[in-house]
Amino acid sequence: MDPVTIGIAGGTGGMGQWFQNYFTQAGHAVRIAGRKTEVTYEDLVRDCDVVILSMPQKAAMAVAGRIGPAMREDQLLMDFCSQKAGIVAAMAGATRADVIGTHPMFGPSTASLAGQNIILCPARNSHNWLSWVERVFADGGAVVTRMEPEEHDRKMALAQSLKHFLTVSLARMLQTLDIRPDDAFLYATPIFRLNINLIGRLLAQDLSLYADLVSGNPQAPVVVDRFLAAMEESRRAFFSGDEQKAADYLTEIRKFFGDDFCKEALEETSRVIDAMYRS
Description:
Layout: E1 5-9, H1 14-25, E2 29-33, H2 41-47, E3 50-53, H3 57-67, E4 76-79, H4 85-94, E5 98-104, E6 117-124, H5 129-138, E7 143-146, H6 149-176, H7 181-185, H8 190-203, H9 207-215, H10 220-238, H11 243-257, H12 259-278
Helix pairs in contact: 3-4, 6-8, 6-9, 6-10
């Protein structure tokens, strides 16, 4: 792959630093600009083939409107935001350059790109930058998937908004019960210990980011309501006093997921648990 020059706007943050290292190791030149750097966002437009917006969505939309009109048609404008409909539309409306919304489905503490999901939402591909983007990530072992921005946001309401909502809700319940992690670990199963550690993992990071991941996705309330309805259905199945009803409920769910998946999931989670205790 021929090297290109990549500019990361917001590159002083965690994800910007992560991808600076990744692109550099892949043989590309990388320039970084932030609010307090001497290099400006306009410098990236002038000097780079690819400009990536690595910042919260509201800021990214503003920067896209600021630098987009100055970009050439043969350049590429990307973003790393967690939602796509708004930012992809903003980028496409601000520039004549190619536009590809990009969502790395991992955080800056990840050791390697191998096996990680990256979702692409291309809006304009007049100069075939899409093939380059897919290749540069696939070369690192990523699983690259194309989606429409609206579909992406619906799926993120499940994969991110609901997941983090559940983690925060469990944390709140433990707080109201005055149950500290050190105490809970004394009687925790491996899965419960992992769930508690996921609470700590979330709280150790940028809380404003997680607040936005839950409340900033307009699809999230619908998904949360569906989960609450499913939770109520589960409550009725398990606490009706009818043990057979509970067993039938679980059997019906298992049929949906299939025996092959369930066996594979058991094996994979067992490896995770073994690794957790070995460390």
